[in-house]
Amino acid sequence: MSAASDALFWxxxxxxxxASRCYYLSREAFRLPTVIIGSVSYxxxxxxxxxxxxxxxxxxxxxxxxxxxxxxxxxSASDSHRQASLNVQFTPEIEKxxxxxxxxxxxxxxxxxxxxxxxxxxxFLSSLPSGSLVLDAGCGNGKYLGFNPxxxxxxxxxxxxxxxxxxxxxxxxxxxxAVDLPYRTGFGxxxxxxxxxxxLSTEGRRKKAxxxxxxxxxxxxxxxxxxxxxxxxxxxxxxxxxxxxEKYGExxxxxxxxxxxxxxxxxxxxxxxxEESSLGECKKESDQSATQSLQxxxxxxxxxxxxxxDVKDANDQQEYFVPWHLPYHRAEVSGASACxxxxxxxxxxxxxxxxxxxxxxxxFIEGELERLVAxxxxxxxxxxxxxxxxxxxxxxxxx
Length: 399
Hints:
The chain is an alpha/beta fold and 399 residues long.
């Protein structure tokens, strides 16, 4: 292959990375094969590519029939596993609207409030051996990245605006989904998931996210997970949350999502994945705000007996909308707030001078994290504790 062909390949590769919004470019981190052309190494773009080594200018070499057969058998065996993962990897609408789009819209303001390190997380990171590679899944604004100067950190988050904040600070980061981490199996020495799992709306997705954290660390590697607890130390905060109850008929927001009440037979309309730049470009809802109506309905006391999941008292409630107040002077940084207001997915609070967003949370009861891990054969729980209204566990990979 000529030098010109090498250069063209590299340019195409960089363009693909930019289009996919990846900020971290080190090939060793990814669960992808490697192609070596001449003296230059390139990360594979697709997981279906096979590792091929090319010497000199001889072009791509082919596999012999035995190797090809072995690879095909391996790929066939994993087809069923990939198919089973599709359901949990499909992002329900409730997460897109009340997690992804919210954090994209509030990223700069959210980041400005996230700087204090939780003592137990800090202790965990400080205890890791020098030279450890730590993977932070759901790193947010990167407040834990680089915390231990003797370790190496790689972060990922579903929110591109938050990842840009991390990248601008010089951290090694990329946009990725917690239920499908792009890192190679056994790559890290430790992994952390701080206040992430409670944003996943089904048990299957929460369990898959834990499996991914275990997968990406080596044998003997540690995983720290923290989630919001039902047992909040500040009870006054809970009073400000909007519970999602089982009272007003079934309205699924995407396959496998929890039941969410909607006052009409319509499903909540999706926000476009790309934020629009102005209010005029947003499609305005003609119906009453679904979020506002939901809050009004859930404050009533009628009972619904059509499901075994009906809430009997406040202590049984685990699904909430938790408000985030974005000050007016920060709300117009982009068109995200204008779009959210037009689509009924945020509202104005003139008294507080803020645009109010609702974030979806599944708060955990005592023992719930342990039960999610119970059936996993490749990890054991080595520590568990309650810290600052969070349930926390530390896992050790055994296989």
